[in-house]
Design brief:
Layout (H helix, E strand, L loop, with lengths): L3 H11 L13 H8 L1 H16 L5 H24 L8 H10 L4 H8 L3 H5 L1 H22 L4 H4 L1 H4 L13 H12 L9 H5 L2 H5 L8 H9 L1 H11 L12
């Protein structure tokens, strides 16, 4: 018996532009057939990750919402950027974007016990930035994720990540995160992209710094649709709600 909320999300993503292939799925079984078992497994994992970003403490929940909005945006953009990159699965890039800040979870769960720390949001955010990457790797290893994804929390902020290696899912998420932090319709700038080893490894780099911006602009509706399905839209979330 499928969870109704999970089934609804699988149906929505099966009907989205990201997966639209031929006739629409009329029920959950058809949606799973359309997506494929491996895609369904990854999507169920992605939706489950979203459920971890929950707290009954209002201030912590506000941080969770911010983190999840950022993660869903990176995930959607990474899935688009992965398409022209040989050997990188857009679904894997989507999941990578969702988990790249997962190290915040154990820190925020612990912070809930210390109201004075929660009240000092700048300090808490510095702790997340400093300790989150190492904890993120530990969480993903414990959950049994692929090594490529386990490396993401520590590697995603590295502008010189494995410059001589072939492009992989980490590189796609690194570049997606660079673009996420920009105003709509703008690019990181040629000087920023040129300093990013991951950008130089992507095939899009040969077309100039505006190529990824143009690709993401063309796919903005698809990105926004994925963000909504993943639950990252700017809508109120009840603390503790599933």
């Amino acid at each position: 018996q499928a969870d109704p909320a999970l089934a609804a999300r699988l149906m929505r993503i099966a009907h989205s532009a990201f997966y639209r292939r031929g006739s629409p799925a009329r029920d959950l079984r058809a949606a799973v057939c359309l997506l494929g078992l491996e895609s369904t497994r990854r999507l169920v994992t992605a939706f489950a990750v979203g459920q971890v970003f929950r707290s009954r403490h209002p201030a912590v929940q506000d941080l969770y919402r911010t983190l999840w909005r950022r993660s869903t945006r990176v995930a959607a953009m990474a899935s688009i950027l992965a398409r022209p990159v040989p050997g990188v699965d857009p679904e894997q890039a989507l999941l990578g974007g969702l988990v790249h800040e997962i190290g915040a979870i154990p820190l925020l769960q612990r912070a809930e016990r210390y109201p004075a720390l929660v009240a000092e949001r700048p300090l808490l955010e510095r702790l997340l930035a400093g300790l989150g990457p190492r904890l993120g790797r530990a969480v993903l290893v414990r959950w049994g994720f692929d090594e490529d994804l386990c490396r993401l929390p520590e590697a995603v902020g590295n502008m010189e990540f494995e410059p001589d290696a072939p492009a992989g899912v980490v590189d796609v998420v690194v570049v997606a995160r660079l673009h996420r932090d920009l105003a709509p319709g703008t690019g990181p700038g040629e000087e920023v992209l040129d300093r990013c080893a991951s950008w130089r490894k992507l095939g899009l780099s040969r077309l100039g710094p505006g190529a990824s911006v143009e690709l993401l602009a063309l796919a903005e509706q698809e990105v926004a649709e994925l963000v909504r399905i993943l639950g990252g839209a700017r809508t109120p979330v009840r603390p503790g709600a599933g």
